[in-house]
Specification:
By secondary structure, the protein is an alpha/beta fold. It has two domains: about 1-255, LarA, N-terminal domain (Rossmann fold), CATH 3.40.50.11440; about 260-414, LarA, C-terminal domain (2-enoyl-CoA Hydratase, Chain A, domain 1). Strand 3, helix 2 and strand 4 (about 70-75) form a beta-alpha-beta unit. About 30% of the residues lie in helices and about 30% in strands.
């Protein structure tokens, strides 16, 4: 174990930690924390994030049972669909006697509490002048009503904030929709391709950290660098969320990025089953957009996906457009949830728009999913019958990059 950037760290890029090492790290770090008699809220990711939660929560349960006065496990949905009891059991493991498990019910105003407002001038400062209006900072009341908040989750390259993890499990993880929309639209203004995999404190990370500073409970984080596709860990860090996140972001940058020498004409992203709608499955596009040549194509192969979004059906009416389209038609779209507009721009990718020439996307986005062809085309995307996709033929095509288990590893040009 070492101390890096103010956090305790075990593991490194290129290493794989065994379960006993991970369990001992969690137990030892929590044993040294001031948690006796405290009410602890443990915030964890939903099933769209790779993470060995049964191992981690088992160690948390073993260490906090008999010490903490009460423990609530809060699943950070953002604005994703709630997880059923059966899915929670599979995802979290357990049972964990004495622990209460809750979904973040972001759709219920009574479950949220306002922590205050970040003023317009401060927003302008944090966003580099891209936005200048106040934003209410609302958070799940479970975090506020506990003495300690322990954030548990992985760090990956991320299309909105640069690298996920840390305070992001609060905002947007268990936040109110206003600041979720606000932070995502800031990321969209920067654009996914420019912010994804950016090290250090991006404008969106700065906004999230500013909001987190308003949380009255003590914040700790157990951040993780997960071996993508295997659910084992390369590294873990523990400490204040900002320090623990920074330590793991450095490892993730050396672990979760693949570099190509030249752009490719086509990418076939095979979207795994953990992404159950295009709202989450779009990560198969975000992570490969940087390596696609101008005029190229990304095919998202996901026969299991049958809808754009389980919780945001308005995306079907709005469709998918580049950032400049929305900025050019802002009066027509500003009343929609900005998080929905952000998702739209992230999946459509880079492009231009003008009144004279209309919208000109940089690449073609093709869905080979269970979403019907008329619905896909009406949303301004291309369609391919998934039954017509020959994976072996694409793999043999020198102009095509086939990405299995897409959505976590970022592809970049050297």
């Amino acid at each position: 174990m070492s101390t890096t950037l103010g956090a305790d760290v075990v593991g490194a890029a290129g290493q794989v930690l065994d379960d006993a090492t991970v369990r001992a790290f969690v137990r030892d770090r929590l044993a040294g924390a001031d948690l006796d008699g405290r009410n602890v809220c443990v915030v964890v990711p939903d099933a769209t994030r790779s993470c060995p939660l049964p191992l981690l929560l088992g160690a948390v349960h073993e260490t906090l049972t008999g010490r903490a006065a009460a423990v609530t496990v809060l699943v950070a949905l953002g604005t994703h669909a709630a997880m059923s009891d059966a899915r929670l059991r599979d995802h979290l493991g357990g049972p964990y006697p004495g622990f209460e498990v809750r979904n973040h019910e972001w759709w219920r105003p009574e479950e949220l509490v306002s922590l205050g407002t970040i003023g317009a001038d401060r927003v302008a400062e944090l966003s580099g002048g891209r936005m200048r209006e106040p934003v209410d900072v609302a958070l799940n009341r479970a975090v506020v009503e506990h003495d300690v908040c322990l954030l548990v989750g992985p760090v990956f390259p991320h299309e909105v904030v640069g690298f996920s993890g840390g305070n992001k499990y609060l905002f947007p993880g268990v936040a109110g929709q206003e600041i979720i929309d606000f932070s995502h639209w800031l990321g969209a203004l920067i654009t996914s391709v420019d912010i994804i995999g950016t090290r250090g404190t991006t404008p969106v990370r700065a906004l999230i950290d500013e909001a987190a500073a308003l949380v009255p409970s003590r914040r700790l984080a157990l951040c993780l660098v997960v071996q993508s596709g295997a659910n084992t860990l390369h590294a873990a860090s523990f400490g204040p969320p900002e320090a623990a996140w920074a330590a793991c972001a450095e490892v993730s940058a050396r672990t979760h990025v693949r570099y190509l020498d030249a752009p490719v004409r086509r990418v076939l992203s095979i979207v795994p089953a953990k992404y159950q709608d295009m709202w989450t499955g779009a990560k198969g596009f975000y992570k490969v957009e940087p390596v696609v040549a101008d005029g190229g194509q990304v095919i998202l192969y996901a026969p299991h996906i049958t809808t754009f979004s389980e919780t945001h059906p308005e995306i079907e009416r709005i469709g998918y457009h580049c950032r400049d389209y929305f900025l050019g038609e802002w009066d027509a779209y500003r009343h929609h949830h900005w998080g929905v507009l952000a998702h739209s721009t992230h999946l459509r990718g880079a492009g231009t728009w003008s009144p004279e020439h209309g919208e000109r996307p940089r690449v073609t986005v093709t869905l080979a999913t269970g979403i019907p062809e008329p619905v896909v085309r009406a949303a301004n995307l291309d369609y391919l019958d998934p039954a017509a996709v020959d994976l072996s033929a694409y793999a043999a095509d020198p102009e095509t990059l086939v990405v299995a288990d897409a959505g976590e590893i970022l592809y970049r040009l050297r």
